[in-house]
Amino acid sequence: MHQWPFSWLTTVDVSRDGWRAEALFWYTTLLCVIAFALVTFALVYSSWKYRARPGVKALYTHGTDRKSFAVTGILAALVFVTIDMNLVRVSQADVKEYTYNWPVSPDTVRIEVMPQQWAWNIRYAGPDGVFNTADDVVTLNEMRVPVGRPVMLNLKAKDVIHSFYIPNFRLKQDANPGYVTRTWFQALQPGNFEIACSQMCGWAHYKMKGDLIVEPEADFERWMKEAEGDAKRRFDPADREQLWGWEWVQ
Amino acid sequence: MGDATMSKPVPVRHLHVGPEFHAEQHIHPEPTSFLSRYVFSKDHKVIAKQFLWYGLFFLVMGGVMAMMIRWQIAFPGTAFPVLGQLLWPQSGGVMPPQSYAAFFTMHGTLMIFFAITPILIGAFGNLLIPLMIGARDMAFPTLNLMSFWTNVLAGLCMIVSFFVPMGPAAGGWQSYPTLSTLVGSPGHGQTLWILGIFLTGSASIMGAVNYITTVVRLRAPGMGYFQMPLSVWGIWLTAILNALFVPVLAAGVLLLFLDRVFGSHFFLAGASITKGGGDPVLYQHLFWIFGHPEVYILILPAWGIVSDLLSFFSRKPAFGYKATALSMSVITLLSMVVYGHHMFVVGMSPLLSQGFMTLTMLISIPSAVFFLNWLGTMWRGSIRFATPMLFSLGVVFVFGLGGLTGLHLGAISSDIYLHDSYFVIGHFHLTMAASVLLGAFAAIYFWFPKMFGKMMNETLGKWHFWLTIIPITIVFCGMLVVGYAGMQRRLYNYEAYEFLKHLHPINVWITRAALLLGASQFLFVGNFLSSLISGKKAAENPWEVGTLEWTIPSPPPHHNYDEIPVVLHGPHEFNNPAVTGKDWLAQDEPIGDEPVALGAVGN
Ligand code: HEM
Ligand SMILES: [Cu+2]
Ligand SMILES: [Cu+2]
Q1: Residue-number span of the structural domain to which B55 is assigned
Q2: Does B484 contact A at CB distance below 8 Å?
């Protein structure tokens, strides 16, 4: 919506909060275009108007009179207040209402993500609600989430830094080796979307893709049931490697 | 003091001659052997030329690599003409993904540390500081020599790294661990990269100490800080930032070196180690504490130069000179406290992120001040559109674009979408690649006569300008567009992603413009070389300006000034009504028979 008439350029935004980045982007762009148009106009206009002509001398001024100071000062203050303070204000509201406003409702889907060179390991807690246990549902390069419920991620990288990027949600979060980072989103419509890596992570970085499958609640629950059954059957207590999860960080 | 020049009868002027002007500057005899004259020279003018050649060499190398990167993006699976076959015969001339990673890494590294830095800071810092402040040489000529040759060693490390097994560094110009540790980059390429950065960093620190001291100690009598040309201001502030922040980078890469070579764990964590882990993000803090000031390290000399050239070619005193100098200083200070805006998505504390965002936005105020002063300088001027002026106007134009797009990245919620995308690539190329490159061209066209005693060809220069500014704008604005569309940086083949496939036409056009940009640089190379050989002989002051370097022959004698000049005016006294017969006034030229008293302290 916000991105019209440039919607052909970018992906559809299917998230509850992606509009924030879009709105701020276009708001900033609008202010920038105005400022840049003024600067360019002044540049072109003075270049033409004040080009050297025989008999016309340049004005001798150092621009140190009170009037020049006042004009410069007022314009600079105006730029700061109308552009910068506005952007800070909008962005502060965004981070307060969304980015750092972690979902607490009990229906939140919790997922652990451990990227490695060059794949996405995904883990759900399973029926016991505890991560890193035998009943965890683990997938590779495929994340399933239901429409309309908040999804919270814990991320930690296995080898090098990666970044979890879902363009249709206007969202990105680094995953570092050694400690857990968090992010969250909520889908508004079902569909298959791409998960991309946005942090250089080695030569095959460009094909570190995953799928984000957003399904209606019922389909998601059906899939989860099935997967939980499989998980129990497949679990091999001798294989310590598969317990790569960690204690959930809210 | 420049402002005090008036047409009325003037009382005796007591020049400020503080203790700083008493540093003695002997005239040393010119060295006679080839080695001491051209190779291991201590003459700042010779070292300036060495840095210029050195920087231009790496500019060509980095530039060709940029063309090959763009080629791969637009025409994947096809061979880059000629060079492709030479470099990758086994794949039929097609660049493999490993080389792509190595090339964007080395392109960034070479351009920043080995092309732009040597040209603007090494060459023009060296050339301009002593000449413009009326000194015979740098404060520490031997340190100057060491700085250049340390840089040569650094450059060698980088070049050698192309020939080691597994190739050069390929983890991005920031070389974030753990990718840049043995976990992600075995082989000697990355280690050589660290050595090269450490060495060039050491060279920068040597240069910085020298520049700072020279400006503080060797200004000619009468040359107060606010009589200095703005070029010197820019270079001096850059030197201060270099002295303060390059050591931080050096510390970061040194720890990385220890991790790679001696098995320490400063930056290692995750599955690759069993216990005693470090923190890879610590490196990012160190890197950006340096990295943000680095942007200003690159741009400040260009700002200073442009501020001077706009005045010179508008034939008007620089508008709000002091305000410009002070706002550059304020930006220098602010650049120390905003680095966190590079790290909004690493999982930093929300409070820190928000603090960094607000501090970042403050930069708009001083930026707005000197932008307005630039426009004010042109206002009611009498503008001569010589090539250096065209390039200066180009800097104002592209820096306007680059500076403004920084706002998108400075605000957290839009940055989360744009971080690590082509939007960032477009933004920083506009600010520190395009504008600094155009600034470097402006400087070269302008000071070439003083450096080499020959004029460059104006017609070729103007063609070069237009065939540079148009494609450069298309290239980097095109990158802003695909970046907004969501395309990540550092992708060997973006068409691996469905959501990026439709960007193909735009990417092809960016590449076409980039190739045109590359091709039009031959105009510059041709002009530069032919002028060097057979250019028209340059007069002492071909541009008719008043800064001190134009009061001595082109090129200047070994010791610059037979007699240290006595500075009476600011650097931009154009169309001063008290002056008749010409529209400029040299900084050391008395108006009429204005009496001057030397030796008094203060004024
Ligand atoms: C003027 C022609 C130039 C062109 C066409 C160009 C193009 C590019 C391209 C295509 C990339 C790779 C983006 C990616 O795949 O992520 C890149 C990266 C980069 N460029 Fe340039 N560039 C140019 C000049 C410069 C200059 C003068 C500088 C120095 C200030 C510079 C600094 C960088 C840096 C630091 C990177 C990032 C490397 C990395 O991702 O590690 N470029 N450039
Ligand atoms: Cu990755
Ligand atoms: Cu920065």
Answers
A1: 14-599
A2: yes
Asked if residue B7 belongs to a domain, the reply is: no
Q: Report whether A12 contacts A86 (CB < 8 A).
A: no
Contacts of residue B282, Cβ cutoff 8 Å, sequence gap at least 6: B266, B267
DSSP letter assigned to residue A98:
I
Q: Does residue B5 fall inside a structural domain?
A: no
B20 shares contact with chain A (CB less than 8 Å): no
Q: For residue range B236-292, list pLDDT tens digits in order.
A: 999 999 999 999 999 999 999 999 999 899 999 877 666 667 899 999 999 999 999
Point out the residue among B280, B314, B364 whose CB comes nearest to the CB of A176.
B280
B412 with B353: CB under 8 angstroms? yes
Q: What is the ipTM of this complex?
A: 0.95
The pTM for the full model equals 0.94
Q: Is B501 on the interface with A (CB under 8 A)?
A: no
Q: How far apart are CA B401 and CA B412, in angstroms?
A: 20
Q: Which amino acid is at B83?
A: L
* Owner of token pair 């990355």: B190
Give me the CATH number covering residue B279. 1.20.210.10
Between the alpha carbon of residue B600 and those of residues A157, B15, B228, B397, B404, the distances in Å are: 68, 6, 20, 45, 47
CB within 8 Å: B408 and A84: no
Taking CA–CA distances from A84, the nearest residue in chain B reads B361
User: What is the residue with the minimal CA distance to atom 40 of ligand 1?
Assistant: B172
Q: Please give the domain boundaries of chain A with CATH numbers for all domains.
A: 18-99 (no CATH), 109-242 (2.60.40.420)
Q: Which amino acid is at B9?
A: P
Residue type, A161: I
Alpha helices for B262-363 (secondary structure H): 280-314, 321-334, 350-362
**Residues near ligand 2 ion, CB 5 Å cutoff:** A 162, 197, 201, 208
Say whether residue B519 is in contact with chain A using an 8 A CB cutoff.
no
Q: Which residues of A touch B354 (CB under 8 A)?
A: 92, 95
Query: Which of B270, B361, B404 lies nearest to residue A177, judging by beta carbons?
Result: B270
Render pLDDT for B17-46 as a digit per residue (tens, 0 to 9).
Answer: 554 555 567 787 888 888 888 899 999 999
Category of B225 on φ-ψ map: left (φ > 0), alpha (ψ -120 to 50) or beta = alpha
